[in-house]
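Record format v2
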Amino acid sequence: MSTLQAQRRGAGLTFRQKLSNFDYKFSPYLYISPFFILFALLGLFPIIYTVNVSLYNWDLLKGQGDFIGLQNYATTLSDPMFWNAFGNTFSIFLLSAVPQLVMATIIAAVLDQAIRASTFWRMSVLLPYIAAPVAVAVIFTQIFNQFGGPITGLLHVFGLEPIKWGYDVFPSHIAIATMVNWRWTGYNALILLAAMQAIPRDVYESAALDGAGRIRRFWSITIPMIRPTMIFVIITATIGGLQIFTEPKLFDGQSNGGSNRQFQTIVLYLYEMAFPRRDFGRAAATAWILFLIIILIGLINYGISRTIASQDIKKNVRVPVAGTRRTIGGRK
Amino acid sequence: MKFSRRTATVAVVAGTASLALVLSGCSTDGGNGGNSDEPITLTITTFGTMGIDANYAAYEKAHPNVKIEATNLENGGAARDDAYAKIAAGTGLSDVVAIEEGWLSTIAEVSNAFVDLRDYGIEDHKSDWLDWKYAQGTDADGRVFAAGLDIGPQGLCFRGDLLEKAGLPGDRDGFAEAIGGENATWESFFEFGQKYTAATGKPFYHNPSFFFNSFVNQQAEGYYKKDGTTLNVKDNAALKGQLDLIVKNANIGAGLDAWGVAEQAKADDFAVYVCPSWMLGVVKGYYDQGTTGTGWDFADVLPGGAANWGGSFLGVSESSEHKEAAADLALWLAEPEQQAAAFEAAGPFPSTLKGQELVKSATDAFFNDAPTGEIFANRSKGVVAQVKGPEDSNIQDNVFGPVLTDIGQGKYTNGDDAWAAAMTLFDQLIKQ
């Protein structure tokens, strides 16, 4: 008690007590500081430096040139090849994110049931995530080889013409989206599974007693209850999906996204700007444009996923809210 | 398309070389305590199948204090991106860096990232090299930043067996004569191809891009005027004429990728391949190591006259900690004897006169024992180095590359449309 009083007065503390005080107040910050220091060095500084680069005429090899303000942004936004990359990115993103999340949710729901050897199944869905993306890309590039790949062989059995995976726009997007899905579906499934496991079982039991079937329980209990995790998964999938690079780069190693930019994504466009074309200023501007696009899409996603996930519990939530409003109104 | 050359073919050579490195590394560590020279490690970055890896062990043997750490990148494009990134960062270049002709002119603009080899005595051997090769490695200020390694004189690889089946001459001289011999033109070449396709119903060539690249290299001025800065693409009737010709003959093409066509080569899907010296290794790489009797042969002919395609150089980076030793290694690798050894190993033709002399009697078992040394010596006669500009490889890869791919896929029936598409890309991509 006397110590407490001493602390309140803020005087007469021994060194040990001061140290203990300091420990109490600042240690948590020290513990988390390595991340922030590293982030400042490796994340924040490059981000800010990129703004600087984007405002100059900046040749990769010759270095900084004249200050040109926002011209790099204007040139990039008026470049049809940027918009081509933009379209490709979204096409591949939608082709991957949507089936990926649907599949991940279904797999998670299945794994959430009482099945035999559950650890084995959980490990299995994560295996594709462990494989290096480069290796995955190399293997899938073989599978989607127009000339003599297994899919071409299969089509041939049915007397069908080979699909030009590396040349036609839409097939190339499907091929790349398949690589992305292969890698990320299991990962997302495990995250969703963790959320599902946290749902109290008695909720299901009482729903079952009330006569709700499996499907009904899934839609009315599981989906609403994993909403925060769902939002997290959707947002990380968005960030990853819009930054896709390895798969399209390796799908045709000779080019930057196909002979005709059939599957050039925004990051590949950025890469082409920075390295083969050596226009570092425009590459930096592209990076910032991509950053803003991701934030925008992230916000839209957040909005949509809130709406979707909360539809089924609207009534439960909205009624008390409405009640509160009335109360407030009554007070007036 | 792409200037990138020598796709991964030399795995075995590289594997053997690295094994040799390991072995020789061990022996030097063990047995040369008496050498007064400080032990150093030199790094070298090469690409594709340059054949010089075979020389490292010999150098290490002669210089027991030196250990060579070699990195081989898949192709010239990868080496370009790697070198650019490291020059931009101002750090990270290996001591010795292989540079490809296609992006040499870009490097020349920032040649101070590389040492002036005149400080290490390259001028004493200037007369070893073909004049134009030596000149290519010299920048505007007269600094020699790159030592010439190999050149890419071009002949035609062809499938003698398939031509014979089609009732056409399938021997080396007969084939060369049939497409016009010394006076072969691209027109006469395509006429021959039409006969082949008419007789067999099979495509004659795999992809048209090499024909366009070769044609560009045959011109006195390519994508740039002689000054190296004025673009020479718009209203270039010669280039348009070649594009027209290629569109007209798209019917005898297989519509394949320009590179990596091993399966189709084995399936007899095409009968001819434009072969600069370093391409021999690429074609061989489509088959298992040591394969012969595939029907491939190599003829002393190129439609449209002599041309050089590609070739590589070695530079020593200014950031190297062992410039003197690195320069010694680079200049040694560029010596005629080592150029000849690289030719034996992988096929790139020496850029030194004496090196060419050394390989004069070389033959190649894969190509039906064709006298490759003699043929390349003939094919390099009359080659005039073309002035390349900073956007050369960009124009090649991103302006004409996509259009040529589309032609291969049968997208254009009319040369004007193809040209218009190329010019649209040109306006979008190239700062004028």
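Residues 9 and 76 of chain A are 62 Å apart (CA to CA).
The interface with chain B takes residues 60-63, 79-81, 147-148, 164, 166-167, 253-255, 259-261, 275-278, 280 of chain A (CB under 8 Å).
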